[in-house]
Amino acid sequence: MAIGSTRGKRRLGRHIRPILERSGLKVDEVVKQSRVSRPTITRMLSGEALARWPALAMVLDVIGATPEEKTRALQLWEVADVDPSAIEHARDLPANYKRLRMDELEAVRERTLDSALVPGLLQTAGYAEAVARATHRQIIGDSWDSRAASERADRQAALTREDPIEYHALIDEAALRRLVGGPEVMREQLDYLVAMAKRPNVTIQVLPYSVGAYGAQVGAMFLLDFIESDEPRAAYVEALTGMVPVEDEEAEVLSAVWDDAARLALTEDDSVGLIGSVRDALGDR
To answer: Could you tell me the residue ranges of all domains in the chain?
Structure first.
């Protein structure tokens, strides 16, 4: 059995089940004709496991998949067959963080809202180190420090890869003014935000103090969308002890809260202007 991503395996299972139902064959009949074990087939159909491609191809032949369905199955299998080494530097972090990282590898769009800190996808090395000293070390220990820079770079590659994720960040003004790591670190961080805002796949909007209170004002939220229309949105909120996945109706509530906050935020140009003003107030090095 291949390892694969949890979301990708479920997506592939949803693709195969209707083909099996259309064939009229029972699982035991498919087992006999394909010579693929029953546990492999049932776990593949439920999205619990990812079969090797030759085994899946045999099953597809037996249940009468069309050439188009086979092509689609191969595409889904390739997406699901994510090498866990892609998040190698996150191996000591909590399971739900690794789940977020795997979702980011597959997502086509991510929206975040941060009320206290610059979002991780946009943090500089100095800023991330300052945050880690204040938070992560308390939770997972000093061993994380040696791989922090590598994990940050791995994760941020989602913004600059050949087919980059579409990223839309809402950042509270308080996060821009909080002096994380000192003036020099913040100057570099704010300059980096301005630079990243120029990328065509990155949108940054600031929620200014003037908007007053708004939904989800405490902590951070993450919303990820995938290319398949039937793939449920992934959603997370961040607590002191790590990521908390949010599913189904609650994920849609979070999405609505994010949309409401986006309507209150400054325009992209005005946001970059405010970031620049905060940066200028810190003076030169």
So the answer is: 6-80, 84-281
Instruction: Give the class (CATH, top level) of 6-80.
Output: mainly alpha
Which residues lie below 8 Å from residue 52, measured CB to CB, with a gap of 6+? 1, 2
Band of pLDDT at residue 93, cut at 50, 70 and 90: low
- pLDDT confidence of residue 58: 95
Distance CA 150, CA 165 (A): 19
CB 123, CB 114: distance < 8 Å: no
Contacts of 229 (CB under 8 A, 6+ apart): none
Q: Which of 208, 224, 212, 210 is nearest to 258 (CA)?
A: 224
- Binned at pLDDT 50, 70 and 90, residue 3 comes out as very low
Q: Domain 84-281: which topology?
A: Endonuclease; Chain A (3.30.870)
Q: Which of 166-170, 187-191, 228-232 has the lowest mean pLDDT?
A: 228-232
The answer to whether 261 and 214 are in contact (CB under 8 A) is yes
Number of H helices, E strands in the chain: 13, 6
Nearest CA-CA partner of 207 in 280, 281, 260: 260
Whole-structure pTM value: 0.75
Local structure of 71: helix, strand or coil: helix
